Amino acid sequence: MSAVEQSSAAHNGHAHAEHHQHQESFISKYIFSHDHKTISKQFLVTAIVMATVAMVMSIIFRLQIAFPGESFAFTHFFLGDKWAPDGVLSSTMFLALVTIHGTIMVFFVLTGGLSGTFSNLLIPFQIGARDMASGFINMLSYWFFLAGSIMMLASLFVEGGPAGGGWTVYPPLSVLPQAIPGSGTGMTLWLFSMVLFIAGSLMGSLNYIVTVMNLRTKGMKMTRLPLTVWAFLLTAIVGVLSFPVLVSAVVLLIMDRMMGTSFYLSEIHIAGEALDNMGGSPILYEHLFWFLGHPEVYIIILPAFGISSEIISTMSRKPIFGYRAMIGSLMAISFLSFIVWAHHMFVTGMNPFLGSVFTVTTMMIAIPSAVKVFNYITTLWRGNIVFSPAMLFSIGMVSTFIAGGLTGIILANSALDIQVHDTYFVVAHFHMVMGVSAIFAMMAGVYHWFPRMYGRMMNTKLGYLHFWVTLVAAYGVFIPMHYVGLAGGPRRYYEYTEFPMFQGHVMDLNVMITVFACIGGAIQLVFIYNFFRSIWYGQKATQNPWHSNTLEWTAPVGSMHGNWPGPLPTVYRWPYDYSKPGKQEDYVPQTVPLEAGEEEH
Amino acid sequence: MMTLLIIAVLVLGFMVVLRLSRVAALASELRGDREEQIPERDNRISGRMMWAFGALYMAFFIWIPLHYHDVFLPPAASTQGVWIDSMFTFNWWMLGIVFFGTNIALFYFSGKYYHRADRRAFWYPHNNRLELVWTTIPALTLTGVVVYALIVWTKITVLPAPGTMEVEVYAKQFDWTFRYPGKDGKLGATDFRLIDADNPLGIATKATMAKRLDELHAQVAQETADRDARAGILPNDELEKADKHIAHLRRQIEGIMNLQVLMQEDIAANGNNSTYLKGADDKVTKEFHLPVNTDVELIIRSQDVIHSAYLPHMRAQMNAVPGMATRMHLVPTITTDSMRAVTKNPAFDYILLCNKVCGISHYNMQSPLTVESAGAFKIWNIMLPVFEKPGAAAKEVAPAPADTAKAEATAAVATAAPATNKEQN
Ligand code: HEM
Ligand SMILES: [Cu+2]
Ligand SMILES: [Cu+2]
Questions:
Q1: Which domain holds residue A432?
Q2: CA A298 to CA A584: how far, in whole Å?
């Protein structure tokens, strides 16, 4: 929390005080702020804190997987005697860490953190608005998010430990405390934390949609919106349509846990006793969960697409190739993401015909995804590429998305999925696309828009170091992981020691993965150092450091109420006039009127 | 050893950070550099690193399967496995081409077109024909992939021929139990309320229902007596809990009595074909055997939470979902002995493992599978004790615990309590 206050404080310390009509109190300015810029920073810093926690968790359980039963001071330092007696991670805590790591990363970092930060920062700036449609609801959206985060972290400290059934919390495991210790108080906190998170996310999304629809400045037609805004808009729409379904899934789960209903329970005999519940089905939960769960993964990757499109075009000094095709594929992906959910359920005993249908729809998603990749590559072709750290991360994003998208085609194939479902192959797939690809886009966004957020620059050389080591480590972790999965290695196993077939080279791969994970984790310290140091000591930013066309760079450096001192800027062209023939400069901001006889691209 | 290494990496990493940042900060201050102005030299270096990394990445990608080739599963040991393996091969080739093609283009262009002040990027906002081409090509390729996938999927999931042998695979925290049909070739009905120490799968016969009712009545009597005896001493909430539990037991009794009615009706309607008469000769065991080259249908059930029956060598998997029975059928094609020869590993065993997180011992919920010739399987199967000795059911009372066949089955079941799981292997 204090980091949030301080970061905003530092940033505003030298702000343009003359633009403030009245002196706001510290609290209303930095804590209960209605300003989209402050809220964006609050989201970012909270997400960085959450990501750090989740990353430490992953190092702890990776150590156990690669060196089962070995004692680690690192593990003991964080977990103490209760969860790591003699420095050996307990099997209960192992499952809890896997669960909370996944939950935090998927929801609190890549949904809240990514959309929350960049939708808030960029939507008003890039459409030329003074703020979000409702500053108050925007503030609430952050506070719900923060309350959810705190509750999730609090679950780490309760008796029985946090939820331990995996981030998908399938019942009956998640309903019955007899089944696993984490399904006691820990699970209750998990569920309420998610409800808060979803409430916050909905408020945010509605605000983003209304803002983009209504508050675009003069001349900002939909076809002149930067791809970032398109991506944020579609993300928000997908979120509004799918998150409520998760709420219903969660509410029914809460009722099964607390009120004795049987939505998900039937014919269970556990801990020596038959339960009364009859007639429910855990499969119902799986459908409800994945009806959100799949769109959710696109809620994560769409903003990542938006950010990398913007950065790749700007830093290649070249218009994004196929602007309309990019919008079209974003729309296609958003639509298709709603009709593929049951590909997570090919082996639940679902009717095989349904399996066929979902195989077809899922494969269809690969088409717009492929179009996007081809368009990125063509944008780079014959560009004039400035390798800022943000650009490096964006290229890394495309490369890792290729790897993850291609394994998606294996998983979409219901027959092949029989073999690899719930093995490390799936884990490798989704970490490639969100654990690496989406995280890279988030990093890219931070490096690129840091001057817009804090009025200062991040250190470029440290950015290079951060990028290259992270890239090598990420591939070092996730390429070998595919092979563990192809060897039949199941996910969420505390240790492989009980299986002769997973000894030898499979364990060698596991050790390799863990070593790279430790390197990758350690290098993030460079980022954290660079980030927080630059907030206070970074080089002062100039008005438009990347020579970009979009509106956020026409507003004065630093933070001011209402974003622009005078009237709002007027827009005359699309945002991608880079290296346009006949122009002196290699960029033409959107506020520059068309010359006589000039075609709008 | 590894701990040290990791700590060393961490410490080293952090030292590098501090050193580099100080050097960089000093140098840039001296030169008056701006962070966003990236000199041509740095862009060239980044471009070259893109090339170097791209090459390294491709090499790493190829090296791993070459060097660690023995991590791959041995050849598929079922007919469906063979289909899946060949479809995998097809997919690897197709995806491999796309993977190398796109990555090479990505890293090559990135490195080639690094920023130079005297260059200008090529203005190329769109090309409809090109976009059409690379939308249709993936679409057509994927159509091929989908058609192939659906053909294999349909073959795998086709309903088994009538009369296919059924084997029940029963999951509970944290072990597997198996049930083979007796002479009648049919598995009998089950009900979760009938589960007790002697009847781990809750097989529903006249005898098990009667016995379970006796047990429950005794338990109700016992708990009621306990409760009344301590009524003055216990705090209210404890009393309430005791009452609730007694009510719960009564509901179980009611449920079983309803089941008895159902059974009577079913027997009246179907006579000797009633599923309630099929369970007595079933065979419950902790060992998993399958005959080679025979289509078997696995009926998969769970007692408590979701599990997943995963047979990696057979390329077969199906979830075990409480409250419903899921099914899959497969034809094992290689006996355990032949597979030992193929893998040159005399200790090789097929394995059934749990592949859906189910609790703290999930990582050790496994059972070996023996695939043997039809003859050997028959002999093994005949030796298994039947669930109820003929005649026991007719008496409509619980058979005495001394009943040998059942005692054996019970003993086999009892060895696998969760706590002793680890020692088992
Ligand atoms: C070409 C596009 C993609 C296809 C065809 C695809 C397909 C699939 C399929 C079929 C599964 C289920 C595998 C299984 O459980 O056996 C899966 C899992 C998953 N995918 Fe994708 N995917 C694609 C892209 C993405 C993207 C972009 C993301 C996220 C940013 C993503 C995130 C996930 C996650 C999180 C899971 C696993 C969830 C879990 O079981 O814990 N996928 N994918
Ligand atoms: Cu999905
Ligand atoms: Cu299990």
A1: 2-16+25-266+276-547
A2: 40
